Amino acid sequence: MEASAATTTRRAVPSIGAARRRWGEELIKGLLLAAALISVLTTTGIVISLLRETVVFFQSVGVGEFLFGTKWTPTFEPASFGVLPLVVGTFLITGIAMAVAIPLGLGSAIYLSEYARPRVRKTIKPALEVLAGVPTIVFGYFALTYFTPNILQDILHLKVDVFNALAAGIIMGFMIVPTVASISEDALSAVPQSLREGAFGLGASRFQVSTRVVFPAALSGVVASVVLGISRAVGETMIVLVAAGQIANMSANPEQPHYTFTSFIGAIAKGDIPTGSIEYKTIFAVGMTLFLITLAMNLISIRFVRKYRQVYE
Amino acid sequence: MRAARSSKLRDAAFRIALLTCIGISLLLLGILLVDVVRDGIGQLSFDFLNRFSSINAKRSGIEAALMGTLWLMAVCAGFIVPIGVATAVYLEEYADNGRWWNRLIEVNIQNLAAVPSIVYGILGLAFLVRGPLSLGNVVLAGGLTLGLLVLPVVIISGREAIRAVPSSIREGSLALGATRWQTIWRQVLPASIPGIATGVILALSRAIGETAPLIVVGAATFIAFNPSGLDSQFTALPIQIFDWISRPSNDINNYKPLAAGGILVLMILLLAMNSIAIWLRNRYEQKW
């Protein structure tokens, strides 16, 4: 009885559900998915290419020697493969860069989000972003031919070498200012207006609202911007390759030349090195180290960004 | 009363400190631009654009580098436009965010956007130049390496452009009997072209200044011919600039103006590309 009633209804009203599968549509969906998978393949490709040669590298060089050795002379006899000098150079320059980028970037972000009128923000923000658009080779040129001789040596009277970590680090810091500023500003602007109004209502000044209410509320976004900035500093090649010199250096003196992960890869890859030679393999071992460090930082940063988005959006 | 005054003072000091942060950053940018223009303006001439690199600094030019860069950009654009747009369409229109693989693709693209550019060079070296594809250090390998590097930029801005098309447009089209793909192809994509184009130009303007990956995939520094095809060896503007500024210090004064001239040409190209992007955004920006 019920079944027949159902059949009659079905006959009376023509079905409006998807009548048949459209294979063309399915095919297109498949093609689009294939395109999206290219980005996954890129990551896989990076990991495979690095891993394959790194494994070969560690067949001839001990892991302990690589990680804890203090001499990096892969191209001379006797070859030595201690990566610590590159670690020192990389983090020395990154440290200098962040000492510039964190205060300038956060200061800019707080001004843009809490103080600037919309018109002012509309002009200053793109101007700051020009800094991020300048090719890094241009920053390298500037650090080497202007900043070191004219600012560090002539004006500040520092005894820096022609190639030095200080100039490379400071100029790199300016390159990273827009990264820190724009992500932090996003986070600061995402803090609900009601929190500010509540604080103003209790008699807080703009300074107090910015530093004690808005800033702590946006902290996860600010952390994300700083971590991403560090990741960019660690991965930046041209500024250090041009301006920081090519000497593996264990000293933490920023007036001296320093090698980094990236500048080593760049300097070695510049010559046409034969596949399978030990120099060829060092590129991959150092590249792997660099990739793992930046990967960890990127994932941390993505996580922190997600956190503030979840709270306020 | 006193507390109020000191608080006001602190407020003013804080505002000045913040403005100083922006001021210092913009000041450095200004000094950099002035310095490059001062060093390089004397170099700019028709001859500079029309000469090949030469052992004689006085007779050197950037023709091969400029042509190489244009070839690279063509390959790069040919790769990132279809793949980037298709990925953006998939993620916005088809992907179900509850599925783990779609979330994986998303996190993966976010991470790729922050992988150091030199690592892409290593990928290009291991897979495109040598290894499985073994293309050699040619235009195609260089352009594809740059393409992989800037693909996330196109995908991310493409997704934003597609997301900005209101769902009422899609629903209207579907209600009139169009299929999902017809809706995307005839309604969603045309409406999001300005945003996608802006993203593509921004991606290319990032690619055009990249030096590190090209060094690793083996762009040559001394080349006295223009690329003749995808399988031709090449050099590029940033590579040529890098070659000129890494001359030994006794020679650097001969080559510094050349490098600055090359930088000026590169910056003019960048300025032109960004102006087009801004114009596109303002001209075609739609308010729904």
Describe this structure in words.
The complex is a heterodimer of chains A (313) and B (288). Chain A has 13 helices and two strands; from the N terminus they run H-H-H-E-E-H-H-H-H-H-H-H-H-H-H. Chain A is mainly α. In chain A, strands 1-2 form a two-stranded antiparallel sheet. The model of chain A is unreliable at 1-10 (pLDDT under 50). By secondary structure, chain B is an all-alpha fold. Helices cover 74% and strands 0% of the residues of chain B. Chain B has eleven helices and no strands. Chains A and B meet through helix 2, helix 4, helix 5, helix 6 and helix 9 of A and helix 1, helix 3, helix 4, helix 5 and helix 6 of B.
Short description:
Chain A has 313 residues and is mainly alpha-helical. Chain A has helices spanning 2-12, 23-60, 63-68, 84-115, 118-133, 136-155, 165-189, 193-201, 206-217, 219-235, 238-243, 261-270, 278-312; strands at residues 72-73, 80-81.
The SSE order of chain A reads HHHEEHHHHHHHHHH
Helix content of chain B: over 70%
Low-confidence stretches of chain A: 1-10
Structural class based on helices, strands and sheet pairing of chain A? mainly alpha
Q: If you compute it from the alpha carbons, what radius of gyration of chain B comes out, rounded to the nearest whole angstrom?
A: 24 Å
Task: Specify the number of helices of chain A.
Answer: 13
Radius of gyration of chain A: 27 Å
Large-scale geometry of chain B = globular
CATH superfamily heading of chain A: MetI-like
Number of strands of chain A: 2
CATH fold assignment of the largest domain in chain B: MetI-like fold
Mean pLDDT of chain B: 91
Supply the helix-strand structural class of chain B: mainly alpha
Proportion of beta-strand residues of chain A: under 5%
The CATH class designation of chain A is Mainly Alpha
- Biggest sheet of chain A: strands, sense, closure? 2 strands, antiparallel
Structure characteristics:
heterodimer; A: mainly alpha; MetI-like fold; two-stranded antiparallel sheet; B: 288 residues; 2 domains; globular
